Amino acid sequence: MEYINQIMRRILMLPPQASSVAKQIDWLHYAVISATMFGAAAIALVAIVFCVRYRHPAGPFGARRRQAPTPTLRAELLVIGALFGLFVAWWAVGFWQYVKIASPPANTYDVYVSGKQWMWKFAYPDGSHTVDTLYVPAGKPVRLILTSRDVIHSFFVPDFRVKHDAVPGRYTSVWFSADAPGTHRIFCAEYCGTWHSRMMGQVAVLSDRDFERWLREGERERSYPLDPDLAEVSESEASLVQQGERVATKYGCLRCHSVDGSPHIGPTWVGLYQSQVP
Hints:
Layout: H1 2-11, H2 22-53, H3 73-102, E1 109-116, E2 119-123, E3 129-131, E4 133-137, E5 142-148, E6 153-157, E7 162-166, E8 172-176, E9 182-188, E10 201-206, H4 208-217, H5 219-222, H6 228-231, H7 240-250
Parallel strand pairs: 1-5, 4-10
Antiparallel strand pairs: 1-2, 2-3, 5-8, 6-7, 6-9, 9-10
Helix pairs in contact: 2-3
């Protein structure tokens, strides 16, 4: 079966199968493509045979016409039933695969994904963030919680066979489990503006040890930067506003809220203090 899988993948020029669901999705692809191609070839062959066998006779008056075959109602119903059954079978398998991808297992590693013209931003449970590069551990389920800051985007990793829309004002989710360490391309699969084709990134799949080291060593580089003036102020000398900014930066509040009035996942903090909200 693996030999057939590799042959079909090369014939159809599919990317590597790098996630736990990639092979299952490809096998459905193989079944649909093979059945439609064989069906089209069979119809073409029958058409050629009929054109030759039942062609118009030669001669000035022509010989007696050959009697064309008359299909029976039973045969027609049999063909229609077989095609309908094949369609239902494909639909059932595809729906099962959709439910599996849409229903993450327990204990997933959650990453917030925010699409913006024209970049991908990733926020991690410890409050750190990256832009255009998603770091995940190998062999563990990762759930992506997607949204958009402007228009509809679509998060697409061909090697994982994972594609899901990021919709402004809403959260959607999809999960995957990468098989082994490596890098995989990210694309936007929904036209989102002038630089849509440049909205690319990569998934960096790390081993457990490398991922833990990345979390420790990259924390300072990936944390939200403090105001330069605030960085020079000691904790005891900082005002309540400055202390609040330290806390918001440390715990990743700014991954959802802005401090300059710009729209983001959550409401902006501008003018929030002492304001009244119905």
